[in-house]
Amino acid sequence: MKDFFKTLFACLVALGVFVVGFVFLFVGFVAVVGGSSEPPVPSKAVLVVDLDMNLLDHASAPGVSESLQTALQGEKSRTLALATAVAAVDRAAADERIVGLYITSNLVPAGYGSGPAALRELRGALQRFKAKKPVLAYNVDWAKRDYYLASVASPLFVNPAGRVEMNGLASETTFFGDALQKFGVQVQVTRVGKYKSAVEPFLLNRMSDPSREQMQMLLDDLWTEWKTTVAPDRKLTPEALQALADDKGMLLPEEAQVAGLVDRVASFDEVIEELKKLSGTDSENKSFNQVDLAAYAGTEVRPGKGKNRIAVVYAEGEIVNGEGRSDQVGGDRLSRELRKLRQDPDVKAVVLRVNSPGGSASASDLIQREVILTQKTKPLVVSMGTYAASGGYWISAYADRIFAAPNTLTGSIGVFGLLPNFQKLANDLGVTFDGVQTARMATLGTVTRPQGEAELARIQALTDRIYEQFLDKVSEGRKLDREKLKEIAQGRVWSGVQAQKLGLVDELGTLEDAARFAAEKAGVDKDYRMDMPKGRKSFAEQLAESLNEEARPKARSSVDVLLADVQHQVEVLRSLNDPAGVYARMPFEVSIH
Q: Does the residue 466 lie in any domain?
């Protein structure tokens, strides 16, 4: 026994020495990573805009657990904050060390980032750069998303083995109604608004007529914006692009050149030679002198030097109760941020940037309360990104002014409740449920059996009440006639263009336009700066990226896309954590391609 304790003590001492040594090494590694400076920019450099990234409104740093989980999964897409990217491109246009800009792409990221509204803002920066310096673009295959940006370039290259996608927009919804029935999972719903189609994938096997109607109108608006934006840079007409979409859809390189979609058909090595002529040759790598957009931008937005602060706060992702993850809008977290800004005398105005399809009704209301209190204290302006729908619109309604992009998806003023139960599935597997209760409504919302008629009626009454509150708030905040509002609500999603006509938004403009208006309303438009969250990557995220250096995502097959679609649906279901089970959220699937 004495020898046992000696051995145990020796092991503990050795373990302690190991832990202490590891801590010192870990701290040293943190210092090395955290102390790294911005990469040098060659005297004649081309700014490389690699569209293999998720362009988020605000690339916030994840927590340690999220970073480790990402590392273990072995796949991570690059992220960059939209404002950071736009500021970097604008800065490069005036930087004497930057002689041109090169656009390339291999992948199409998924998520709420890189949506139409974000791409439109980045495209504006690319056009401003082109007015001063050359912009080139090359890819093997140009998808519509990337071509929307690359169409700014001249020359625009495509590989001899590649293609150019020109087939219009489409939106497909995955329906699980029949599958859930086969598995014995029953779903009951409560909803208000005939266009509130968020519950349909779990009930039906096809789109309802109202859902089809709203999606067709929405896609028509987005496609019109795409054509009218791209056509002038390619010296074409929107009608010519429509004809290509109707007749060809996918163009071979030579066809794309004849049609004017690209300037040259060239291999990668030929494009490199063109870039070398522009910038010279990097003696170390034998390539052209270059600096990546993310590296050039650094890790934070560089605001102006104005004295007065116009604070920008972000609501990006699903709206959930509590703190939420870094890619979600936590009701408690965002409310706390707004409260701090409201109470800060140095903040002269607040710009709330919304890029959210909505989510928890109670969390949305919690955030909206802080929006109202802030708006009473100082100017509060909303800038809408790609999504500002349902709960995303709920938190926007009381702003002094709402700015949206033409291709913003907004509105969706409606609510729903989703009530799955697994009784049949469990019974088929030999699992049963039994219990006792002290009131008829004691098991309201249980997933072990279908809701009874009285229970379902009660939940519907709660849903109706929240919808009426939604209408009241939008009517008051936007100063819209309530009866007129009921006609354009019904859960319908509108484009930014249509939303402006209906009075749901005030102006079509960018984040900077919103900040400029906020500064004017605060009376500080002559001397202000946009004060944005730094978005600096945590050490945990940097560590995760270093572990994944060789685990960059590969081009996805159609099967990968389908599996990702199903996984996204599961993630959305996991985010439904409203205590009352009632949600102000736009349709689950607005997957546009």
A: no
CA separation for the pair 510, 390 (Å, rounded): 21
Residue that is written with structure tokens 């692009």 in the block: 241
Q: Which residue has the tokens 């290509």?
A: 244
**What's 128's domain CATH number?**
3.90.226.10
How many CA atoms, within 13 angstroms, populate the side-chain half-sphere of residue 296? 25
Q: Which two tokens stand for residue 585?
A: 């959220």
Tokens of 7: 């051995």
Rounded to whole angstroms, the Cα distance separating 265 from 267 reads 7
72 in a domain, yes or no?
Answer: yes
33 falls within a domain: no
Helix 116-130 to helix 82-94 angle (10° resolution) is 0
Q: pLDDT tens digits, residue range 149-174?
A: 999 999 999 999 999 999 999 888 88
Q: Report the C-alpha gap between 329 and 363 in whole angstroms.
A: 9
- Kindly report the average pLDDT of the chain as a whole number: 83
Q: Is 310 helix (H, G, I), strand (E, B) or coil?
A: strand
Indicate which residues carry an active-site annotation: 196, 390
User: Which residue segment(s) compose the domain that 150 sits in?
Assistant: 45-167+249-298
- Residues 585 and 416: beta-carbon distance below 8 Å: yes
> Around 239, how many Cα atoms within 13 Å sit in the side-chain half-sphere?
0
50, containing H or E segment: strand 45-50
User: Is 7 exposed, middle or buried, given 0-12, 13-18 or 19+ CB atoms closer than 10 A?
Assistant: exposed
pLDDT per position as a tens digit, 347-399: 999 999 999 999 998 999 999 999 999 999 999 999 999 999 999 999 999 99
